[in-house]
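Class, study these two lines:
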Amino acid sequence: EVQLQASGGGSVQAGGSLILSCAASGFRFDDYAIGWFRQAPGKEREGVSCIDSSDGNTYYADSVMGRFTISSDNANNTVYLQMNGLKPEDTAIYYCASSPGFGPLPRTVAWALGSVYDYWGQGTQVTVSS
């Protein structure tokens, strides 16, 4: 059974940091990409970052570039999202998801599409106060 377990959310003040974890099981981790998405109240879900566990390529939304860092511990089937310089606009529920492949679209575009991900974990709340 495929499972993705997201954790690490919390409440911080602006400028603070959090580390989110996504523990995966039930599939060959090295063959998948793991993405982080977020959804704020009243807003559409958006792709935050992604790491392709097979080659280590990483992708980031412009809004988090330079502040967030995604990494993968393949030995422990866990992906981390280090979030620094948090802003109130980062407040959202964060989800991790797994993708077996991005299809024919360019990776730089496809990684942020929820449709290329087949399994999703439960969300973890991140709240940033000003």
Summary: The two ends are 40 Å apart (CA to CA). The longest helix spans residues 107-110. Helices lie at 107-110.
